[in-house]
Amino acid sequence: MVIELVVATRNKHKTREIQHILGPEFMVRDLGVHPDVPEIRENGTSFEENAKLKALAASRQLPALVIADDSGLEVDALGGAPGIYSARYAGANATDTDKIDKLLRELARVRPAEDGRRARFRCFVALARNGNLLGTFEGIVEGSIADEVRGDSGFGYDPIFIPEGLKQTFGELPTEVKDTISHRAKAIRALADRLRRIEFGD
Question: pTM of this prediction?
Answer without folding.
Answer: 0.89
